[in-house]
Amino acid sequence: MELIAETVAAIRPLDEAAMRAARERHDRLTKPRGSLGELEELGIRLAGVAGVCPPPLPAPAAVAVFAADHGVHAQGVTPWPQEVTGQMVHNFLAGGAVVNAFARQVGAEVTVVDVGVNGDLPEAPGLLARKVANGTADMTRGPAMTAEQARRAVEVGIEAARDLVAAGHRCLLTGDMGIANTTASAALIAAFTGRAPDDVTGYGTGIDDATHARKVEVVRAALTRARTELPGHDGTAGADARVASAAPLAVLAQVGGLEHAAIAGFVLGAAAHRVPVVLDGVIAGAAALVAVALAPGARDFCLAGHHSAEPGHAAALASMGLRPLVDLRLRLGEGTGALLALPLIAGAVRVLHEVATFDSAGVADKDAADVAAAGPAGGAREDSAAAGPAGGAQEDSAAPDRAGRGREASAGVAAAGPAGEAENDAAAPDGA
Ligand SMILES: Cc1cc2ncn([C@H]3O[C@H](COP(=O)(O)O)[C@@H](O)[C@H]3O)c2cc1C
Ligand SMILES: O=C(O)c1cccnc1
Fold this sequence. Notes:
Layout: H1 3-10, H2 16-28, H3 37-50, E1 61-68, H4 83-94, H5 98-106, E2 109-116, E3 127-129, H6 147-166, E4 171-177, H7 181-193, H8 197-200, H9 209-227, H10 240-246, H11 248-255, H12 258-272, E5 277-279, H13 282-294, E6 302-304, H14 311-320, H15 336-354, H16 358-361, H17 366-373, H18 378-387, H19 391-397, H20 400-416, H21 419-427
Parallel strand pairs: 1-2, 1-4, 2-3, 4-5, 5-6
Helix pairs in contact: 1-12, 2-3, 3-15, 5-15, 6-11, 6-12, 7-9, 7-10, 7-11, 7-13, 7-14, 10-11, 12-13, 13-14, 17-18
Alpha-ribazole-5'-phosphate binds at residues 78, 80, 84, 88, 176-183, 204-205, 332-334.
């Protein structure tokens, strides 16, 4: 079978049993229920991704920076010369970019993938030479890529994910480098979400208002042209999102970039291997729309690292129902926003491995406290009402075998390694 179809077919839903085990475990840990907010949901989802509770820590982690050039650069949508794409690749390989500093900070490995930089790059350690073309064509004048180039670039991403997972990486992060790629991102996001170009086109690396106005018109012109070449398109903006979801690769070829294609493949590959993939900013958001249109189940394997200053990013994340972990008004790309989120993801997982349960720590369970304090959260009150005032705590202390097992299991996390207790939990939830 062809690699893209094979990868899409390999993507399975989240593992419900592992998520149930994680949910139940969260409720037994020595903290008020729900007190870790979205990190609890994150830990539960990661259990579903891995199919085990607790899920593996997201380490070692690897960020893949997909680099490519854009023909639409000729339309004056960015003040930066196209050569900066290749020059930044050298900087990544020398360890001198922001992505390298942040990767060192969180212990992630950086891999740079040349999927379409205009011009030759010398071989170098850390560089995967996977050039599909010397950049895309100008999307205002014709399709950015041929169907074959788009397919091949998606495969490059799938293969990169496969190889990083095979090398032992347990969390993948997306990165990008491509001068003018926020223009292609805006076009993809407009096409897939149906939003208007002026809603989703931002200031990229930093442009003046006149350049921004031109950029919006460039996105509009590319979409208008593309509609005439997409089978089944009636030429109206209202049909964009329907056509994009029915023919994502065709839309990708019309207005996307080679790095968008590769990142879409990277997302699919991570999902097929049941490894979480942390999305960086607007370029990753646009690429993930392509991946999710190809395989809706891939969405559950995506974590939104951060909220970029580019307006299209929020539109892309909202349409996939993903909430960003951090919001620092970054507008850089390279994988920087994804890397900054990694410690939060690790924290969400570590809680499930290391935090003691009420039984094991000898802390009185919540129900007694809830009844006394009638805490502010509606959920807590509901729970105590449902469980009754006698509560799990008393029951637990009256059942030494369960308390004992709890203590032993908790210690076993450190001694026997992460998976031990989890599998027990999944097989025989404690609270049953
Ligand atoms: C020195 C430099 C380093 C970067 N690192 C990431 N980007 C980011 O900016 C580019 C997109 O912005 P636009 O669409 O406005 O050209 C991409 O290469 C992206 O990764 C950079 C841009 C520059 C100039
Ligand atoms: O959101 C991003 O990742 C981004 C924003 C501006 C420029 N480059 C990347």
